[in-house]
Amino acid sequence: MFLNELVLSMSLPEIPGGFAVWCDTALFVWLAVVLVGVLARRANGVVFPVLTALGSLFLLITATVGGNGDCTIPLPYYLGNAPLTFVFDPLSRWFLAIIAIIGCTTAFFAPGYLEHLRQRVALGFVWAGIALLFISMVGVVLAGNAIAFLVAWELMALSSFALVASDHTQQTVRRAALIYLGATRIGTAFLMAGFLWAHQLTGSWTFADWGLSGAVALGPALLILVGLATKAGSWPFHLWLPIAHPAAPAPVSAIMSGVMIKTAIYAMVRLYVVGDHLTAPALGPIILIFGAISALWGVLFALLQNDLKRLLAYSSIENIGIILMGIGIALIGKQQHLPYLAQIGLAAALFHSLNHALFKSLLFYGAGAIDMRTHLRDIEQLGGLIHRMPWTTASFVAGCAAICALPPMNGFASEWLLYQGFFALALHGPLAGVRLAALLLMGWLALIGGLAIACFVKVVGVAFLGAPRSKAAEHATEIPKTMLIAQGALVVCCIGLGIAVPTLLLPLDQLVRVSGEPQLLASAWSIPMPALVALAVGTLSVLTLALAHLARRQPARRFITWECGFGTLGPRTQYTATSFAQPISRLFSLVYRYVVDITVKGRNRHHFPSGVSADATHEPYLETRVYTPLARAILRVAGSLLLRLQAGSIHQYLLYMAAVLALLLWLGVRQ
Amino acid sequence: MSCWLLQLINICIIPLLLMGVIRKTKALLQTRYGAPVLQPFYDLAKLLRKSETISGTASWVFIWSPRVGLMIAVLTAVCVPWAGLVLPEGWRGASNFLFVLYLLALGKFLTMLAAMDTGSAFGGLGASREATISLLVEPALVIGLGAFALQTGQMDLTAMYAAPASPIVAALVGCALIIAALAELSRMPVDDPTTHLELTMVHEAMILENSGRNLALIEYAGALRACLYFGLAAQTLLHVWPGFATLAFGWHYALSLGALFLLGIAVAVAEGILVKLKWRAVPNYLAFATALSLLAALVAAAQG
After folding, report:
1. Which of A406, A544, A555 sits opposite B67 (nearest CB)?
2. A387, A625, B91, B176 — which has fewest CB within 10 A?
3. What is the pTM of this model?
4. Which residues are registered as beta bridge partners of A616?
């Protein structure tokens, strides 16, 4: 689907100025969804998915053939003295395409999924929230100045908060929504401070006017970076992701994890890399280091989770880390005047953003399908789903292969580009230390890859394979066809993008290349993937034919799994997810603070125990040792000092007003 | 064309022959007479003739994993110059070492899934250990090969092994590759393929449920992978002699195969002397591979 559009975009002439028309149509269609959803709160009619898909389609047209340009909404509709300006360029269109693709699949997946929440959730509201979230994400991606950006950003935060809270009859969901809201507030506060600082330095709200570089830019750039990193879920600001994602309905988790956190990536690329709006030399290494820690931290904690959606949320932290490493490489390349490095780092980051949107949505859809059919998220209680939900399992396995960066899936292509970036840095780095660090980063990425494989083998092996571990898993059935279409389309995208990399590198090349630089990206991809896939399919067919021939003479026999002669195996004798992760937990026990407590009971304990129990615990270090004391300290200050400010006494409040008035008057006089 | 043909002949004959040589050497070392060198061929033929038994719990993952595994082994064996053979121009990109490593990881991914597919506790145990070993091995391989690649500036194994290299880097990376290869191939001292106790196994625990044709595919893929890893290690070690890269084709090929078999014999001797490590000591053993790779990276980065 997407590939065809891409080919079209290269052959068809772009419609000049068409972007505004197409994009406006998309936004109005989605606005209609919002209105209908708010008016008919409990409805779940076919009108919602149809309109959502229609809006996404128009947006896809904008992204592919819409052309470049910008549009400003005329005078009376200003925000203060800043106009609402929207910029359409290759970068924003790349992210519009991501939004549009996930919008299309949401329209197919969500109706069936939301149906099982009908008793508890006002579905019209959910659709309205989803449409509003899409509108606001388009706004963020297109915003040409800080004010328009902030308005869209806040709309995005609020609509996603409402979506996280959609199942608010449960206490855990309410808590998750509040924590998420708190995280967005803190992020926006940093973002606003950064924007104000930049405005102070340049006197303009328009991004295009910001040309700050050097030490001056570092302050606002870092404040904005903290704000954006909070939204993106990079370490150490990732706290809300593993709490908010499990609470939200699966299609919403898919949008938030697949697309919404990428808007922060978009803003980083826009401000630091492509536009040269804020360039500070320290920024590249900082982003690279935070990305590297984030990637390892995310996958390490993903490995320990047994709640499927929580695990996927941690894996998002990992992937955001990988994207950040790409951005860091790009910045270092720009700083060192190494165009190849800059181009390939940025290409890796943008390509991985698209890929992560595709496969993470696919995986969240899989988790949603399981949740819908079994009402379970704990993989320790699942199992055997491959016989009961074969198509969901197949697409989930494909998604896992993609997220583990296994060829020929798309995840491999973008991680390979990042490896190329590291290798180029190792080759052309100015200092021996830098070259060594680049080589070590390659090993770091390989370690992350190995951990990701362990993590997703655990998920598939425990949740989908083997025998069912609970009644609910035993009675699971396949999900409706429309939902399978959404999953299938994403699988096709994942494989297609992995094989047709050079086709995709063409539009990326226009995006990452500063005019005048040679075309380096097109020749970066050297793996003859289509030929290799053809060879693989050929070899596999020969093998299959030969095996079929042998099977005719000696057919296979079905029998029980070997049980060492002890009698039938129960589902409880299977390896558990916790046991699977145990050797790796022990390796990284310092990070996890992993403790196994084994108690043996009975009189003659050593030889004839009456009971043995083992209890493994790990501690999310950052949460318990940093954030909890911090939150407690803030509460203490608020409880002791700030409470007195708001004591409920009208006299006190009148005093404040008088004091503020006096202050303002004094300030005015001073001017 | 002749190159393709030679590579195909290599793929058909050398892997099982290498296995036979290793077994024969081990037998001689234990003062046994041992099975004939061609025994792996007979074993393969026997397994292919037998019928297979599949667990009732197993699904298509279990049935397809060995085929795809063998397909991947063949694909990598075609692309990688493990016997010193160089592929035609258009195919050289396929020997990119990251592509090869990730392709092999795809094979491991499927093997681990197939192990968990039957619902046997041994399968899960083996898969868990395999995942742990491979996540420790992969950084060592990537850093080591990356350091070696730094000298030619190209990540294609074909290009890397066609140019002369620094002897120190070649020696360090070669040793790291041997250590890593023993772990990746589930050989002593990390894993004992001939033990009778399933609880101590890694690879054999994963393929406990496979039989007949299915097992034959796995055995052959394993032999191919052994050739691949030992071949890469041998090629790297041969680069300690700077003149190796510029040798005439015949000598180059003969020396490569000779080194491969010599390495096989050396591994057999080592397996005869060494004891299997405790599972908890395996990370320490693999740390040697990582350390050697890091040293190679240090040297390569300093030269750069």
Report:
1. A544
2. A625
3. 0.93
4. A596
